[in-house]
């Protein structure tokens, strides 16, 4: 389905002239790189397990080795995945629009690997692990560098380590959530990319931004729960339409 060129032009104009732009991204952007969304069925060995049972405190306590190995499997998928043109276009926007911030629900670091520097991770990051009980954080964890008990133990207190991601029933990291809502309240434009708008409290961000007067430009192949709050919907994958939008932004900024 071709996107109306007039919509692309209008969206690019709004983005180019925004003073406090924010990008809000979801699982659809990562799916374009080949990372399945969390609710999609696993394949092979993991097809017999319910992902939601593997992403709870209760599931971890019941079978910590199983949960750890499932996340090790997912870490491997993420490590072998590369950013797509949607990620790259968002990183390019950051160069064109000083102060642009990215708020993401994704846990795969693909925004950072594409070149985005100002990224708020609402749901954590699968490449990090942390102590199940304490505050000890282990950056850039590699399963290949570890041999021994599964899950490994925290070097500080001896408790199990777990993925540094938000599980079902857990609150989002307070610092990240507060920063995200502050951006939503103060931005003048929010570019919403590849999110269904069904997971709270993150799904409230575009609504908050709209109520505070920001323009909402949505990029999604099909309408989402956020579409009702959007000023423009560009019905396409991010990797297909965002490079075109960024090219228009460059033209506009070059003529300023």
Question: Any descriptors?
Answer:
256 residues, alpha/beta, Rossmann fold, SIR2/SIRT2 'Small Domain', 2 domains, six-stranded parallel beta sheet, three-stranded antiparallel beta sheet, 37% helix
Describe this structure in words.
By secondary structure, this protein is of the alpha/beta class. The protein has two domains: 1-35 and 83-123 and 172-256, TPP-binding domain (Rossmann fold, 3-Layer(aba) Sandwich); 39-80 and 125-165, SIR2/SIRT2 'Small Domain' (2-Layer Sandwich), CATH 3.30.1600.10. It has helices at 5-16, 27-31, 57-62, 64-79, 85-96, 110-114, 174-186, 204-211, 238-254, and strands at 21-25, 101-104, 119-121, 124-131, 137-138, 161-165, 189-193, 215-219, 232-234. The protein has a six-stranded parallel sheet, with helices on both faces. The protein is elongated and about 60 Å long. The mean pLDDT is 92.
Assign the structural class, choosing from mainly alpha, mainly beta, alpha/beta, alpha+beta, or little secondary structure. Answer: alpha/beta
Overall form = elongated
- How would a crystallographer describe the biggest sheet? 6 strands, parallel
The CATH superfamily of the largest domain is known as TPP-binding domain
Q: Helix coverage percent of residues? A: 25-40%
End-to-end gap:
32 Å
> In angstroms, what is the radius of gyration?
19 Å
What is the compact description of this entry?
This protein has 9 helices and 9 strands. The protein has 256 residues and is of the alpha/beta class. It folds into 2 domains: 1-35 and 83-123 and 172-256, TPP-binding domain (Rossmann fold, 3-Layer(aba) Sandwich), CATH 3.40.50.1220; 39-80 and 125-165, SIR2/SIRT2 'Small Domain' (2-Layer Sandwich), CATH 3.30.1600.
